[in-house]
Amino acid sequence: MSFHTLGLSKPLLDALAAKNYSQATPIQHQAIPTVLSGRDLLGIAQTGTGKTAAFMLPSLDRLAAERQIPKPGQIRMLVLAPTRELASQIAASAETYGRFMRLSVGVIFGGVPNGKSVRTVARGLDVLVATPGRLLDLIDQRALSLRELEILVLDEADQMLDLGFIHALKRIVALVPPKRQTLFFSATMPKAIKELADKYLTNPAEVAVTPVAKTADRVAQRVVMVNQAEKTALLTMFLQSEKTERVLVFSRTKHGADKIVRMLEAAGLSANAIHGNKSQAQREKALALFRSGEVPVLIATDIAARGIDIPGVSHVINYDLPEVPEQYVHRIGRTARAGAEGQAAAFCAPDERGLLRDIERLTRQRIEVAALPADFTVKVEELKRLKLAPKAPERSARPNFKSDRRHDGQRREQRNDRQRHPHRADGHAAHRSGAQDRNGQRRDGQRNDAVRSPYRPEAHREVDAAPAPARTNPGHGHSRPAGAHPRPEGGQPKRKFRRGGPRRAQG
């Protein structure tokens, strides 16, 4: 169905035409009229079906129709996302759809300096996309308030619960006004999500366009039975033999993803990893290289299963089968997007066969079993002889500590034996103490009596040995008797300070 029949305003239609979007998806066709009416919505749809446009297009239309300039530190619409990548994509979509509207859009998430996030929300925003953690940080700092919020959106609500954001969600919802429009979007509907929706939604309209556990129709799936220690050899042969465009490989652990990258680089294949231990700059750089095709292989954990929306992903490989069968659906949904076709391969170790049965039971389909390559054993032996690249050392966030400068294990005594500073080596005067001569010897025993050093330690001893003069006037401690040793040059008189006001007069 065309977007022109859904009741959207002309600026939004012009923005959609500029992106060559003309036909609405089923979730958009059902959700947009409901959101435009101001009613709460509970939407269930698998990833890649256009949920972002389903809630962003009508919400922008409502904000533009009731034009209000947000006050400093206030926002009108809040979109909560579970991951940084997904938050960035939602914000980019909002800017694209609202390019012909005078609406301000911002995004905040962890991994960036706190000051930058504070500046983002300081002047007030029409639309803010945020992860729960950074949002609560700004609220605690009183840099952001939700008192004037009009629209609250929870995207990928089920994944937020999986990542442990339930307490953060409850706290955020308690801070928003009771009179608001709330939109829940999720790929699955577990019991916890249903209870959350019943608590925070008021008479919502429910939209479910596809079965929860149905995989994408245009994805060709296969599984290969292989030992865990031989998976990297199989992945290497797959990348060298298959005609691929962009390959997304899913690993169960962060350290496993880094190890896969090192082994692929040892085999001459370029790859990057993206997971929770990477900084935001590293994650953005890896995604940019993957999007441009400069590094066509990206190793990811499930943190990116629903956060990557990159066209042209031709293959998705499940290096490790997910422990939660629903994640398999989200993983392979990264390919065959926007009407394209894709392929998905899974590597199943003997101890993962139970996970494979859970996936087939959930999706209600048998996955085709493919055979190992003919020369697979030879490739395994070749890979074993490869020397892996050294693991990159993890630098401390606090630079220039002595422990960091001694990361190579050298002892302090060994560093003292190195060549000294050139000026120090030839006896530069600026680096010699006042009690040493040009040869480094002390001057005390060999100085000439005619040229005496201005340094006289005996003068201080004389002062210390002199008896303290008696005070003549108890009310004025600054007078000194005649004949007393003069005060050292540059010294300051000792003064007694009494708290609580000026000193009382004596007598």
Briefly say what this structure is:
GO terms for molecular function: ATP binding; hydrolase activity; nucleic acid binding; RNA helicase activity. The protein is α/β, with parallel strands linked by helices and 507 residues long.
Distance between the termini: 103 Å
Class of secondary structure makeup: alpha/beta
Rough outline: globular
CATH architect. name of the largest domain? 3-Layer(aba) Sandwich
- For the largest sheet, list the strands in their spatial order: 3-4-2-5-6-1-7
Under CATH, the topology of the largest domain can be stated as Rossmann fold
Query: Which CATH class of the largest domain is shown?
Result: Alpha Beta
What is the helix fraction of residues, given as a range? 25-40%
| Rg, Å, rounded | 35 Å
Question: Overall mean pLDDT score?
Answer: 79
CATH superfamily of the largest domain: P-loop containing nucleotide triphosphate hydrolases
Low-confidence stretches: 394-428, 430-435, 443-451, 474-479
Q: What is the assembly state of the chains in this entry? A: single chain
**DSSP strand tally:** 14
Q: Classify the beta-strand content into a percent band.
A: 5-15%
Number of domains: 2
Biased composition (Basic and acidic residues): 392-429, 439-464
InterPro entries: DEAD/DEAH_box_helicase_dom (IPR011545), DEAD/DEAH_RhlB (IPR044742), DEAD_box_RNA_helicase (IPR050079), Helicase_ATP-bd (IPR014001), Helicase_C-like (IPR001650), P-loop_NTPase (IPR027417), RNA_helicase_DEAD_Q_motif (IPR014014)
Region (Disordered): 390-507
Protein name: DEAD/DEAH box helicase
